[in-house]
UniProtKB/TrEMBL annotation, chain B:
Residue ranges occupied by any Response regulatory domain in the UniProt entry: 3-119
Keywords: Phosphoprotein
SUPFAM superfamilies: CheY-like
Annotated PROSITE patterns: RESPONSE_REGULATORY
CDD domains linked to this entry: REC (cd00156)
Domain of life of the source: Bacteria
Pfam families tied to this protein: Response_reg
A Gene Ontology biological process term: phosphorelay signal transduction system
Origin species: Sphingomonas pokkalii
Modified residues (4-aspartylphosphate): 52
Protein name (Swiss-Prot/TrEMBL): Two-component system response regulator
């Protein structure tokens, strides 16, 4: 192929460290090839011939705008409606149990690393379907480090392929409108149940107040162990003692924090321990 | 191994669907219209049916009604798979008893996801 240059090791390293500095995400060696593929549209958009040329522009540019875009396209934002749906069902049961313990209280849930919104929207649908079990509709905060992902989540607009991944058709017709252009948009009555915001788990203070439940699924897979530990500590500070943390299917807190322990009642979830009396809570 | 009956008057669509379904480890059968599909179901009901809407001889909707009337002991799951992507069509399909709905064009992930939702994949 003419004009196609393999990126230099130095360029790849700089791109990798930019991503890690901004988001904590490390690029595993076996995923390095994806960098080039992911950057291609951006190279084209900026008339750059190669990844090395991009790095040159990054070093020279004064505004962080290009760097923001690079970070955004390199983030893995893979998601779907009702991903690991059984866990979401359990979570709603856990929320119902919490409501029974504190009738009249408004529950608070945080979906951290919500990507393009399928996770909090799925949750909002489930909670709305059990509305009679809750004193008030639980508060849902949904955040992501990527401004583009959050903008998409807020718009609640999905392609035909996205809308058909994980979402049962009955829920689709109940909660979404067809735009006529082959896209589907979440009804205002659903979207208004969620507060979307940009938030970086590795750099920003958590949203204020204590949460009853935090979801942080498939976000920390490529964080270093040290960074995971740091983020678990942050999350422990943002959750009330007895609150529940939900991770992705292949993720665990074990060996990384003493602030959460596996829940006995809800498999696959972790209970936040009262930092003041950790041993009493374990016993 | 679960069985899937692919009902579509387009040979190309049947071929594409068959290919995907076989990678999902389904035993695939084919029918070119609702009439053929009904005969196939009465002879040996599949676990799930992937059903086109517009077909000669007998449409997907007419097939669905006939299938209901046939009163099979174990009614197969029915997943519509059609270019009729409007809300009115989708609602009508659900009302007629369809379990799921795939809007064409579809890919492997869509099909797999919908088959999981109806509990056969
Ligand atoms: C693979 S998606 C998972 C989305 C959803 N939680 C799920 O499980 O389907 C991971 C998301 O985490 C976000 N993310 C990555 N690093 C982050 C950070 N440091 N702070 C907040 N979000 C981050 C990414 O932008 C991406 O949208
Ligand atoms: Mg047809």
């Amino acid at each position: 192929m003419i004009g196609r240059e393999t990126p230099s090791a130095g360029a790849m390293q700089l791109i990798g460290s930019l991503l890690e500095q901004r988001t904590g995400q490390q690029i595993a060696a076996n995923r390095a090839w994806r960098i080039e593929t992911a950057l291609k549209p951006l190279l084209r958009e900026h008339g750059l011939a190669s990844v090395d040329a991009l790095v040159g522009r990054l070093i020279a540019s004064r505004t962080g705008e290009l760097a923001d875009k690079v970070v955004d396209v390199l983030l893995n934002q893979e998601t779907s409606f009702f991903r690991d749906g059984a866990v979401l069902e359990h979570l709603v049961q856990a929320a119902q149990a919490m409501q029974e313990e504190g009738p009249g209280r408004r529950l608070r849930i945080w979906s951290a690393g919500c990507s393009t919104g399928q996770e909090p929207l799925s949750l909002a649908m489930l909670l709305a379907e059990r509305a009679d079990a809750f004193a008030m509709p639980p508060e849902i905060v949904a955040s992501d480090v990527s401004p583009a992902a959050i903008a998409r989540a807020r718009a609640g607009r999905y392609s035909q392929f996205e809308i058909q991944r994980g979402l049962p058709v009955r829920r689709m017709v109940q909660w979404f409108d067809a735009t006529g252009a082959g896209e589907w948009v979440a009804k205002p009555d659903l979207v208004r149940r969620i507060q979307f915001r940009r938030h970086n788990l590795t750099a920003d203070a958590p949203p204020p107040g204590r949460f009853d439940i935090i979801l942080c699924r498939n976000v920390m897979l490529y964080f270093s162990p040290a960074l995971r530990r740091q983020v678990f500590d942050e999350l422990a500070g943002a959750i009330r003692p007895g609150g529940l943390l939900v991770l992705g299917a292949g993720e665990t807190v074990i060996g990384l924090t003493e602030r959460f322990i596996p829940s006995q009642a809800f498999r696959g979830m972790y209970v936040a321990i009262d930092a003041a009396a950790p041993l009493a809570a374990i016993a | 191994m679960k069985t899937c009956l692919v009902v579509d008057d387009s040979k190309v669509i049947r071929k594409v669907a068959r290919h995907i379904l076989e990678t999902l480890e389904f035993d695939v059968r084919e029918a070119a219209d609702g009439r053929e599909a009904l005969d196939a179901c009465l002879a040996d009901a599949p676990d799930v049916i992937l059903l086109d809407w517009n077909m000669p001889v007998m449409s997907g909707m007419d097939f669905l009604r006939a299938l209901k009337e046939a009163g099979l002991p174990q009614r197969p799951k029915v997943v519509f798979c059609t270019t009729e992507n409007g809300m009115a069509y989708i609602r009508a399909a659900i009302e007629a008893g369809a379990d799921e709905y795939v809007m064409k064009p579809f890919d492997r992930e869509t099909l797999e996801s919908k088959l999981q939702i109806v509990g056969v994949a």
